[in-house]
Specification:
272 residues; alpha/beta; Elongation Factor Tu (Ef-tu), domain 3; Rossmann fold; six-stranded antiparallel beta barrel; 7 helices; 24% helix; globular
Amino acid sequence: MKDIERRYFETNAVIRSVDKLTDNTVSCIALSREIAGLAKPGQFINVQVTSGQLSAPVLRRPFAVSNVNGDEFEFIFNIVGRGTKLLYDILRSKETVNVLGPLGNGFDPGDGSRKKLLIAGGIGIAPLKSLAGHFSETGADVTLFWGNRSRRDFFGADHFENKNIKLMMSTDDGTAGFSGNVLELLKEEIKIKNIADLKEYDIYVVGPDPMMKAVAGFIEEQGARCRVSLETPMACGMGVCQGCAVRKRGSEEYKLVCKDGPVFYSDEIEFK
C-alpha cells in the first residue's frame, strides 16, 4: 500500500460519553479537534490504559476510529480481558483519556464509480462504520454484510439504514437475518444473484482472523481482490517496536501492521 505522510497527536481527549452497546461492547465518544480533523476511515488510535497502579497494563491499546462527528470521534471495543475491563472503568470515572493518533494507513476508497461491498464479522463493524459513512456521503452503491453469533450481538444497525446502505445480517444461531455465517450469506446472495460478479466491487473485509481468511480466500477464488484490516497488539503504533509484524505472502519479508497497515490487500499477507 502506498505510504502516506503521517500526522498524529498525543492528546488528552475529553470523554463525552461511554455507553454499553451490548453486554460486552462499549462505545466511547471523545473530543479532540486534532484527531477528529485528521482521522480517515481505517485509521486507528492508541489509547493509554492506566489506573495509576504498578500492576496496571503499561502498553497502549489500539482501536479503530469508528466514526467522526465534528470535533468528536468514536471508538468501539469489546470487554474481553483485564485490560479492556480496566479501560471501561477508567473511561467511566475520568474526564479525559490519553490518546495517540490517528495512526496507520486507512482504507483506499477505490474507484468512485464502482459498487462497494463491506463484510464485517462481529466487532469488525467498528472500522467499517466510518467507511460506510464516507461512501454514503459520496452517493456510492453500498452493500454491507454483518455477521454475529447471535441477535444480541448486533448494535446500532439503524446508523447504516439511515444512510441508505443495504444492510444484510447473519447469525450463527439463526436468531436474526440469514441463518449461518457471513461467508455462507455471501455465497447465498451470489447464488440468487443479489450480488453480481465480485470483480465489479471494491471489497472490504474486517473481523476475526479466521473469518477474514475464509472470506478473503473465497473472494480470491472468484478472481477478485479485497482489502482487510488487521487487528493485533501494537505497543507503539508507529513502527518503532516492530511487535506487530505480519509476513508477506510468498516471501520471507514482513510488513508492520501499524505502519504499513492496518489495511492490506488480502493477497499481500499471510493470515496467522
